[in-house]
Every structure is written in structure tokens, then in C-alpha cells.
Specification:
The protein is mostly helical. The chain has one domain (about 1-250). Helices cover about 80% and strands about 0% of the residues. The protein has helices at about 1-20, 20-45, 50-75, 75-85, 85-90, 100-125, 135-160, 165-180, 195-200, 205-215, 225-250. The longest helix has 29 residues, at about 100-125. It is globular and about 60 Å long.
Length: about 250
Amino acid sequence: MKVATDIGLLYKRYTRQMLRNPIWLFVGFSTPVLYLALFTPLLKQVTRAPSTGVALELFLPGIMSLMAFASGSSAGFSTIFELQGGVIERFRVTPTSRFAILIGPILSGLSMMLVFDLVVVLVGIGFGFDAHWSGLAVLAVLLCLLATTFAAFSVATAISTKEISAFAAVINGINLPLLLLAGVLLPISSQTAPEWMQVLAHFNPLYYLVVAARALAVDAYGRPEVWQAFAVLAPTCAAMLAWATRIFRRAVA
């Protein structure tokens, strides 16, 4: 019960911090909308899709996956700032659950990510996207799993490096290969990618989310990509949370 209370308090704290930053909210909402507005016409021509709605069935799930990845991987920046500001040090003398200190900010980030995703879907509907809400509900679970995985990794890396330039180097170093090997903008298939890239993609958890997202966007629950995504992301998320919790407890011991 105490852990749940602590998580709730920290969730509110970090959510209020985000809502007090109008620039962050503006950028968070405008970036995915600009992706849709500026890239969708190009994608329609490249894929030879018969309509914008069909093109968005490929592109919009990729953008939602990209937002989940970005939301999770950037979580460590606030940890770095709190380390430098002495906030983590202050937590050492409190009875607050160490797991709550880790998961509270992550849950706050997940809430904002889902709000941004909803905005993207609504804008996509305006461009002709045919929203299947039951499939998108299942997709929301997968998005949260991936975002939590990378948020835990990001926070653990931030605590391990303790310095923003080193942390940024690690995060920026993995961003590009993971995004390219996930097929976020264009699907990775035998028609669009060499065989070696198709093989490497299967070692990337983001790839499984992107492929499942495109299936769920058209309500294809029965496709194996959906269950493969759960089989990969659920244990990966659990393992990453366990690792991050252990590192966090040592830092706030």
C-alpha cells in the first residue's frame, strides 16, 4: 500500500513539472503532427498507395512507435538533472520506496505519451486514416511496454554515467541504428531491405513493436507479429525494470 501511495505522489510531482513547461508541451504535440503533415504526401508517392489513408496505415503506427521510443529513451535526462541538483541525494534520507522513485516518473511519461498518441491518431483521421480503436487499444499496451523498457534503460544509464555528455553520447549512439533497424518510416521487408538488415532487425525490440503496430492498425489481431511482440517486449521490459531498480537502489541506498 505504501509503495502505491509513493508512486502516486511521485507521479503527480513529475506530471505537474511537465505541465508547467508550455514549450515542452508545444514541441511534444507539434513534432508528430509535423511528421504527418510533411512526410505523408511523400510516403504516398514512394509506396504507390492508392490513397492517403492506406499510406497512413504504414506510417502512423511507425510514428507512434517512434514516440514511445523517444519518450522512454529521453527519461534519463531528467534523472541527470536531479542528480546534479541534489534531488536524488535528498531522497536518500526519506522513507520513500526506491522502486516508486524509479517508476513514478516513468508512469508520468507514459501518460503524456498516450495523450500525444491520441492527438496523432485524431490528426491522422483528418488525413484519411481509418482508426480501429480495439486494435489501437492493444497497441497502447505494446507502446507502454516498449517505452517502459527504454525508460528503465535510460534511467539506469543516467545513474551509471552521472554526467550529461556521457549519457547523451550513449543514448544518441543507439538511437540511429535502432530506428533504422526498426523500419519506423518504411517497412523492412525483402522488397526494401537487404537480407543482412532483415536479420539484424530481429535483434531490435523496437522492430517487433513497429511490425505489430502496423498489424493492429488494421485490426489484424490474429497475425503472429502481434503475439511475437508481446513475447519479446514483456520479458524484456521486466528484465530491464529489474536491472534499473537494482541500480537505483544502490544509488539511493
